[in-house]
Amino acid sequence: MSSVFTKIINGELPGRFIYRDDTTVAFLSIEPVAYGHVLVIPVAEVDKWTDLDPQTWNQVNEVAQNIGRAIIEIFGSERAGYLIAGFEVPHAHIHVFPANDMSGYSLSNTMRADATDPAKMDDAAARLREALDTDEQGFPR
């Protein structure tokens, strides 16, 4: 059975896409620790990041780093947080988020999906796509 991330990647479930190429996809988390919280995911459905082939791992991290730079610029955060947990969805993924302290590193501090402001989520996605020069599906322009 496909993971929820594969269903988002394939368009079976909605997602606010930030970036997409043949190897990697990035979209906003529906339960963010802060507005601008992005999940960077390999297209290949691999459960553990430690099982990714080195080439895919390098590409996913390069995308995460570029998104992290954009997050710092757009949201004015001191840092871009980077977290791998992997217990929520059995599909390798990196959390990248605006960070000014350690609170975002606890995924128990997320906003519930029904408590996020859709306008703020849309704005965060649009600003990140603009910084990365990608379209609404995350593809480079």
TrEMBL record:
<feature type="short sequence motif" description="Histidine triad motif">
    <location>
        <begin position="91"/>
        <end position="95"/>
    </location>
</feature>
<dbReference type="InterPro" id="IPR001310">
    <property type="entry name" value="Histidine_triad_HIT"/>
</dbReference>
<protein>
    <submittedName>
        <fullName>HIT-like protein</fullName>
        <ecNumber>3.-.-.-</ecNumber>
    </submittedName>
</protein>
<dbReference type="InterPro" id="IPR011146">
    <property type="entry name" value="HIT-like"/>
</dbReference>
<dbReference type="GO" id="GO:0016787">
    <property type="term" value="F:hydrolase activity"/>
</dbReference>
<feature type="domain" description="HIT">
    <location>
        <begin position="4"/>
        <end position="107"/>
    </location>
</feature>
<dbReference type="Pfam" id="PF01230">
    <property type="entry name" value="HIT"/>
</dbReference>
<feature type="active site" description="Tele-AMP-histidine intermediate">
    <location>
        <position position="93"/>
    </location>
</feature>
<keyword id="KW-0378">Hydrolase</keyword>
<dbReference type="GO" id="GO:0009117">
    <property type="term" value="P:nucleotide metabolic process"/>
</dbReference>
<dbReference type="InterPro" id="IPR036265">
    <property type="entry name" value="HIT-like_sf"/>
</dbReference>
